[in-house]
Design a protein that fits this description.
heterotrimer, A mainly alpha (99), B mainly alpha (320), C mainly alpha (659), A: 99 residues, mainly alpha, 79% helix, 0% strand
Chain lengths: 99, 320, 659
């Protein structure tokens, strides 16, 4: 199977994830979209590792997973905190950045 | 060892099976991604993401990365997505997004831009990959006796420092999450005594019933949660069953309207005998059982006359 | 001063190294002996003014005495300085005293230094002696005025500024004094500012003087550009090598300044109005000293004018025109002070004519200036005495026959008359005849005009005498003329001595001072070759003067003067009464267009400049408002923009790589 096919699949997933980030308002959904984009990247890493015939790409994908896990922990904690004070998980409603 | 070798041989890289796996799993992954973006309920989104990730795990395995495939399933689908669902439950499982876009042109612009992004990415990759040959991962996997061994040897030699740093990152993230989620207590904890005194206070001021409501199934034929308690006069008490189950047909509860009205009157009489004199408020009792909702302004009767001001009626949009 | 410091330094009270720089600064000037105290000339009146201004009403009781003291002491000091200066050899009669440096920008540096030389000592004497006498006179004249203390404060301020003007060692310091006298003149003309006419006159004097002052500032700028310095010594040393066009420009700018300050045509209109000020002010500022500052400026800058014959000719022309115009106005005005003001213009015109003759006339300009200072001050003080007696009535048509009641005033006025009219052997007989001779030697026309002006001088003076002191009494019913108090009479008596004997004194008939020899080192002098004998000009002048006196006497002395000014008079008289319509054409040609220009400028300022500024500001505000619209606060919007930016970046790189 040509690695280009995997890369195009990854691109499609990445783009869908990006649309999710840009369009959805629920912070958790946005967060999951980010995870989707990360996974798309991982797919390219693995595909290129297969193409180049060494394991470094898989290694990097592994690290991405670890860092993504850490990120999820912190991010969800932040979402929890915001939800606790504002009673909302919408990323639009506060418009905190404006005022 | 033997099992690992077998695991490596699940799908031979470059075989027709790989092609089948790609088309099936790839399609499912895209469906999952679309589901993430399109579903209205957050829980559904989370489940769609899980679907995508499992399919990606399959693809990893077909690409000669079985270790990553399993890590993907265990860590992502098993831990991360469950963490997501856990938080979702905490902050309200039924919170669903309104699908009306508030930002003008955001959706169209987002889709167009992301499409352009995708086109550029594909173009760049296509140009970059032009003329390259695929070596295949099998040799690299076989070098140390298998995929896991190969990764392990890399992880503890070439990527040792990165590994340590990532470990530190994980610990820091855990600590950070603890700090962020921790809630400081600003008032002393209310114990049994304080709660009891509060109830007695409420009864004295507003005549709120200090005792607990009847439990479902008391004196009934069954103690299931949906079976109402039987009152001393033999009728069933709707108050005793959880809100979602009320109004449903049940052998012990008469579904006829007049019977329900009689129930209400009974409750009203019960309340009349105490100090509350608000029949129309009591009509709500069947709907909401929290004491604060029954007597929302029980605190404003400072003169102790037993008269209360009613809150303004809720308007159409649910604001009061 | 330096010895005092030196002794301080040696006695150990002050560490000697701190004294050293001060000492070198002071000893850098070649002042010594009495000349060390030159600075007192400036400091005393300035001190008096400061005390009187600051102390306010508390000093009402003794303010006038302090004012007089601060004017009389410098007069004594000036005489002492003159004696000391005469004791020095001719070549070392220029003494400078340096105080400190003003450094402005880059190489532009001016010293605060004063310079005493034969020319400035003449002015110092004139200013301090006449000024001192007028201070004394004012004590009596202003006795009933509640603002007498303030009046003396301003007079002292004027003295300080005028002395600074004539003692300055560079043009910038001169400019300071120049503006100072302008300020003092403004304040004093408007001293009775509750009278509308006085306030307006003060404003008019101030504005017209500013026009001249622009000339002085331009001249100073040109000098700095041309010579890199504004010090007299540097400028005069460099002037002979300088470009003649530049010199002409500087000369004309200086002339503009002199014209404004000295009330020469066409900037003369303020002087007649300035007569609204108290009479001592008219005598001191608008007759004897300040209005002659223009002559001083031109004579002081003789090195520049020597290189600018065109400018000199313009000076001559201005002088001739003003000489006739002033006399003309003097003949027609019915108010005593205004007639005298016309006379002042005319006499300063004489000085300008002399200055315009170049090296042949500078000395005579100063000579006539000093003589004029004495007799005109005398005449003005006399007029003040008359007005004082006549309840401040100014119109001569309500005077008449005053010789019987005001004998001292009458006699001193006659002395002034003799001084100005040019009858030998009194003041003008020397100075004016010298000017006539010098003018004739260079230019027949100028000579003829000066002789004619001498006749006019006699005419208006005779008219004044006749209308004021002779004929029948035409007084108001409530007028009870009386002789003035002693404090007013004595200055008049002393000044009338000056008017009679000043000329004799100045040419060395009495005493051993010859003003010609005295001023020569500073102003230069070239004997003008006269084609006719000197005595013949004197005879012609004498005859013209006598004719003027006799004709006027026949008109005004032997006939009754009507109280109402006759309406059926010649065009010449009408023009004279209207001050030659100068005010009219100033108004039509300058004021109206000026007002229109100002209005247009205001409009342009509001619409054009402010509009542009506001336009830019609101444009930027608009951009800012537009940009804030992008700051929605929605993180999704920001993310979208990030994606867009990334796209753009990738596109640029992609294109760069592609081509």
């Amino acid at each position: 199977m040509d690695p280009v096919a995997y890369v195009i699949l990854a691109t499609i997933l990445f783009c869908i994830g990006a649309v999710g980030v840009l369009v959805r308002r629920n912070a958790i959904v946005v967060f999951m979209s980010v995870e989707m984009m990360l996974n798309a990247c991982n797919l390219t890493f693995v595909a290129f590792a297969q193409m180049h015939g060494n394991l470094d790409g898989q290694m990097i994908a592994f690290f991405v997973m670890i860092v993504a896990a850490a990120e999820v922990v912190v991010g969800l904690a932040i979402i929890m905190t915001i939800f606790r004070t504002r009673r909302s998980a919408s990323i639009d409603e506060p418009s905190l950045l404006r005022n | 060892m033997n099992e690992l070798a077998q695991m490596n041989a699940v799908v031979e890289v470059g075989s027709a099976g790989e092609e089948w796996a790609f088309w099936i799993c790839g399609t499912l992954a895209v469906i999952g991604a679309l589901g993430l973006v399109l579903s209205r309920k957050t829980v559904h989104s989370a489940l769609f993401v899980a679907l995508t990730m499992i399919n990606l795990a399959v693809l990893y395995i077909t690409l000669g990365a079985p270790f990553l495939g399993f890590v993907q399933i265990i860590v992502y689908t098993g831990a991360v997505m469950m963490l997501f669902l856990f938080v979702l439950m905490l902050i309200g499982v039924d919170s669903s997004d309104s699908l009306i876009e508030t930002l003008k042109g955001q959706r169209l612009a987002a889709i167009l831009m992301v499409l352009a992004l995708g086109v550029i990415a594909v173009a760049v990759i296509a140009i970059a990959l032009d003329g390259t040959t695929t070596i295949g991962i099998n040799e690299a996997n076989a070098e140390h006796g298998g995929n896991v061994e190969g990764l392990a040897s890399l992880m503890f030699t070439k990527y040792l420092l990165a590994m340590e740093i990532v470990a530190a990152v994980l610990i820091t993230a855990a600590m950070g999450a603890l700090v962020l989620a921790h809630r400081e207590r600003w008032s002393p904890k209310r114990g049994q005594r304080e709660l009891a005194e509060e109830r007695a206070d409420d009864f004295n001021r507003a005549g709120i019933h200090p005792g607990s409501l009847p439990s479902p199934g008391v004196l009934a034929t069954s103690n299931a949660v949906g079976t109402p308690a039987i009152l001393p006069d033999g009728s069933a008490s709707e108050l005793s069953i959880p809100v979602p189950l009320r109004g449903k047909k049940h052998p012990d509860i008469p579904a006829e309207p007049e019977q329900i009205a009689a129930d209400f009157e009974e409750v009203a009489e019960l309340s009349e005998s105490e100090t509350v004199r608000e029949p129309e408020k009591l009509a709500d009792v069947t709907g909401h059982l929290e004491l604060d909702e029954v007597y929302p302004d029980s605190h404003n009767d400072e003169a102790g006359t037993g008269e209360f001001e009613l809150p303004p009626a809720p308007d159409d949009e649910g604001r009061s | 001063m330096s010895t005092a410091l030196m002794s301080l330094a040696t006695s150990g009270d002050i560490p000697s190294d701190t004294v050293e720089p001060i000492l070198t600064q002071i000893t850098a000037s070649d002042a010594g002996g009495i000349f060390e105290f030159m600075w007192l000339l400036l400091a005393l009146p300035a001190f008096g003014a400061a005390v009187l201004f600051v102390a306010g009403r508390r000093s009402n009781a003794w303010g006038h005495l302090l004012g007089v003291l601060m004017a009389v002491i410098p007069a004594g000091l000036a005489i002492w300085l003159l004696v000391a200066l005469m004791g020095r050899p001719e070549e070392s009669r220029t003494i400078t005293q340096h105080f400190w440096d003003w450094t402005f920008v880059g190489t532009f540096n001016a010293e605060f230094a004063i310079r005493l030389d034969p020319l400035s000592i003449v002015f110092v004497l004139l200013i301090t002696i006449v000024g001192g006498l007028i201070h004394i006179y004012s004590v009596g004249y202003m006795a009933e005025d509640p603002g007498r203390r303030l009046f003396f404060a301003m007079l002292n301020l004027f003295l300080a500024a005028m002395l600074l003007l004539v003692l300055a060692d560079n043009y910038l310091l001169l400019y300071l004094g120049w503006e100072g006298v302008g300020l003092a003149s403004y304040l004093l003309v408007g001293f009775w500012q509750y009278k509308d006419v006085a306030a307006v006159a003060a404003k008019k004097a101030f504005v017209m003087n500013r026009i001249g002052d622009v000339g002085l500032s331009i001249a100073i700028m040109l000098m700095f550009v041309t010579f890199g310095s504004v010090t007299f010594g540097d400028v005069f040393a460099a002037a002979p090598e300088a470009d003649s066009t530049t010199m002409t420009l500087i000369g004309l700018a200086l002339l503009l300044a002199a014209t404004g300050k000295s009330a020469q045509y066409p900037l003369q209109a303020w002087l007649l109005d300035a007569m609204e000020g108290p009479t001592p002010v008219s005598a001191l500022i608008h007759a004897a000293t300040m209005v002659t500052a223009g002559v001083y400026l031109i004579v002081r800058s003789n090195a520049i004018f020597d290189q600018a014959p065109v400018a000199l000719n313009v000076v001559l022309a201005v002088g001739l025109v003003t000489m006739i115009a002033g006399a003309w106005i003097g003949c027609a005005q019915d108010e005593l002070k205004k007639a005298l003001a016309g006379s002042t213009m005319s006499q300063i015109g004489y000085m300008f004519v002399a200055a315009g003759l170049g090296p042949a006339g500078y000395v005579f300009a100063i000579f006539h200036l000093v003589m004029h200072g004495m007799f005109k001050a005398d005449l003005f003080l006399g007029s003040g005495s008359v007005m004082h007696a006549m309840n401040e009535e100014r119109n001569m048509r309500f005077y008449g026959a005053l010789r019987g009641v005001m004998i001292v005033t009458w006699i001193t006025f006659i002395c002034g008359f003799l001084g100005i009219s040019g009858l030998p052997p009194f003041d003008s007989a020397f100075s004016k005849d010298d000017i006539i001779a010098a003018a004739t030697s260079q230019n027949w026309f100028a000579g003829a005009v000066t002789i004619f002006a001498a006749g006019l001088t006699a005419t208006y003076m005779t008219r004044m005498m006749a209308m004021t002191f002779f004929g029948k009494a035409r007084w108001h019913d409530d007028a009870h003329p009386h002789e003035s108090p002693q404090t007013m009479l004595w200055p008049m008596i002393i000044l009338s001595f000056g008017a009679i004997f000043g000329g004799l004194f100045a040419v060395g008939v009495i005493g051993d001072l010859n003003i010609l020899e005295w001023l020569k080192p500073v102003t230069g002098y070239e004997e003008a070759a006269l084609e006719v004998p000197h005595w013949s000009l004197e005879v012609i002048t004498f005859v013209v003067v006598i004719i003027g006196i006799v004709l006027t006497w026949m008109q005004f002395g032997m006939r009754d003067v009507p109280q109402a000014a006759p309406q059926h008079v010649t065009v010449l008289t009408k023009a004279g009464r209207e001050e030659l319509y100068t005010n009219t054409w100033h108004e039509e040609l300058l004021m109206r267009p000026g007002q229109h220009l100002t209005r247009w400028l205001v409009w342009f300022d509001n619409k054009g400049i402010d509009g542009a500024v506001r336009g830019i500001a609101s444009g930027i505000m608009g951009i800012g408002t537009g940009l804030t619209r992008t700051q929605t606060g929605y993180s999704r919007r920001y993310a979208l923009v990030m994606v867009g930016g990334f796209l753009l970046l990738v596109a640029v790189f992609f294109l760069a790589w592609w081509f």
